[in-house]
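Inputs:
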Amino acid sequence: MKKSLADRIEQYLKVLISRSDDKSIEIQRIELAETFDCVPSQVTYVISTRFTEKEGYITESRRGGCGYVRIRQSSPQLADSALEYIDLFAFIDELKLRQLLNHREAEMIKYLAVNICADLPREYRAKINADMVKALYNYLQM
Amino acid sequence: MKKSLADRIEQYLKVLISRSDDKSIEIQRIELAETFDCVPSQVTYVISTRFTEKEGYITESRRGGCGYVRIRQSSPQLADSALEYIDLFAFIDELKLRQLLNHREAEMIKYLAVNICADLPREYRAKINADMVKALYNYLQM
DNA sequence: CCTCTTTTGACTTTATTTGACCTTTAGTAT
DNA sequence: ATACTAAAGGTCAAATAAAGTCAAAAGAGG
């Protein structure tokens, strides 16, 4: 699959973030544009479509001399206590969005969940939903 | 009985899927249409009539630049009764040996299994063990 | 001839790329 | 302090690149 320029920039930034100590990076828009040989607004486009709050990122910037764009991966707002009431599938989708699970992992876990619950008494299904959410939450150290 | 264009495209895609590592392919609608010298919507037609969820396929797509259509074969429902008695952890290790699961996946599934079973009545634990073995067996299309 | 499937193409929606123009900030000269 | 200037980043809309939709036309089989 050929990657679009936007995809490549996204990937590059995500690698930088993942390697950073504090899940936060500071870049210069122009510099990055030069690295990828594109117009600066391409960078703005990538940030505004792929590093949204919904996907768990917070951005700040400053114009003018010594300007910058900072992207920070926000820690999830999910409190441990609220986890019980979250739908497992929605939770998995959210984890995928945040790239804590890849596509295959997400699908596999969903598949396992469905099959485990398939003919289990109703009262245990909710429990398994909750336990899986909690287990994922813990395993991924969120 | 002469094969229709739709039939030929279907066959072509199924060969590609069967040859793929992960039973999943990514194509460009336009490109495929060019290959078969037809309109792009013909491809959409084939996918929507022959690669339905009911027939065990899941599709995703993206429009715009570098768009694609991904078709994934979801696993068939084989129920092998002998699987019931296999220990889940041993089974996972075996899958890892055969490189059907990577380390992270194996560990994550074990972690989930332990946490799901943690305080479930004894009689359901064996069932979950068996269901997970079966689900993995099916999911990985062994 | 009638029905169901296939083929086609016009139109719609979504995603990406590019560039012209706007705003903010820091530094410098007066 | 004030005004000017250069150096950022922001906005927005046009151009381009895909895929989706839908219905009409064409074809196949009974």
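The two ends of chain A are 31 Å apart (CA to CA). Flag for discussion at group meeting.
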